[in-house]
Amino acid sequence: MEEGFKPLEAERTVEPGFIDIIGVDKKNTLTIVEIKRNPATRKDVLQLNKYMKIYRVDNGRMVRGILVAPEIKKNAKKELDFLGYEFKALTPQECSNVLKRKKSKVLTDFFI
């Protein structure tokens, strides 16, 4: 996803669903990553927001929220920006290229 990102856990079950990836960035900031195969919608942003609310209550610790998808709808981008979260584009072709690599690769290997 970015230089220095370290995944800690994948598919963590929480009350409103499950978080795709929890990790820390190079500054050791807790990072919640929501991954979508299709263009991200406002509903996807609100889903990420639910997960962020869970971790923001953790003693006021700084938490980043990142939505990963091939693209993002205009209204979703506005909502994402308003909430202060980030978007990272990942195309279906990039996903396909990752799947063609060795099986020992993990999901986060293609977050560059």
Q: Layout of helices and strands, plus pairs?
A:
Layout: E1 6-14, E2 17-24, E3 30-35, H1 42-56, E4 63-69, H2 74-83, E5 86-89, H3 92-100
Parallel strand pairs: 3-4, 4-5
Antiparallel strand pairs: 1-2, 2-3
Helix pairs in contact: 1-2
Short description:
This protein has one domain (6-110): Trna Endonuclease, Chain: A, domain 1.
Number of helices: 3
Q: Can you tell me the number of structural domains?
A: 1
Shape: globular
Distance between the termini: 4 Å
Placed side by side, the strands forming the largest sheet appear as: 1-2-3-4-5
Outline the low-pLDDT stretches.
Answer: none
As a percent range, the share of strand residues is 25-35%
Given helix and strand content, the structural type is: alpha/beta
**Architecture, according to CATH?**
3-Layer(aba) Sandwich
Taking all Cα atoms into account, the compactness measure Rg is 14 Å
Number of strands: 5
String of helices and strands? EEEHEHEH
The biggest sheet amounts to: 5 strands, mixed
